[in-house]
Amino acid sequence: MVICGIQKLTLLDYPGKVACTIFTGGCNFRCPFCHNRDLVTGEAEERLDPEQVFRFLKKRQGILDGVCISGGEPLMQPELEDFIREVRSLGYCVKLDTNGSLPDRLEYLADQGLLDYVAMDLKNSPEHYGRTVGEALCDVERIDRSIRLLMGGDIPYEFRTTVVRELHQRADFEAMGKWIEGADQYFLQQFVDSGHVLAPGLHAYDKKILLQALEIVKRYVKTAQLRGI
Questions:
Q1: Which CATH number fits the domain 3-227, given the four candidates 3.10.290.10, 3.20.20.70, 1.10.3810.10, 3.30.450.150?
Q2: Nearest 10 degrees: CA dihedral of 76, 77, 78, 80?
Q3: CB 33 within 8 A of CB 191
Q4: pLDDT tens across 189-214, in order?
Q5: Distance CA 151, CA 182 (A)
Q6: Is the pLDDT confidence value at 43 over 90?
Q7: Three-state DSSP class for 222?
Q8: Cα Rg of the chain (Å, integer)
Q9: What pLDDT is recorded for position 197?
């Protein structure tokens, strides 16, 4: 299990929970707007042994409620199942962040009852998915399978899109809304250039445009909100 960092406290990442966030290394996408460049490329210098994480979690029992597992793409980790089982044995709820590209692994963890919440990135409309994730031959069918899995299951979930001016247009919001029509929760997130993204030179939309995009997607999902504004 490649663990490249831990945020010891978050009140934002796991809805309704006081949590910490574990960051795994490695990703199968190369989204130009990704702010976790070192995790994606393998440049991250920090490495934590899982036992270090478990010792931390034991000390925080009764203080923290949940553990967010983010990345990178956590589902790439072969030891993820065992790691989650150990976390749950300590009494924590588990939230998984995923790009949705590995539906078989997502389905397996869901079937095993190991996930309490899933946040899945919806990168763009199907037509523009490849360029948005840096993989020209991206198999959008895998993304669709993960969407259907979450929407047809019992695990609380959300979809979220980081909105970038160079990558998203009005038609994309319409297409994404239709793609996840009927979804429980959808968040449009403001892009923030941390200065450490994979591809420099990208920009955020202003709030007015994001509000217009929000009105588009609201027609298709049960709840839609802006984040990062």
A1: 3.20.20.70
A2: -120
A3: yes
A4: 999 988 778 888 999 999 999 999 99
A5: 8
A6: no
A7: coil
A8: 17
A9: 86
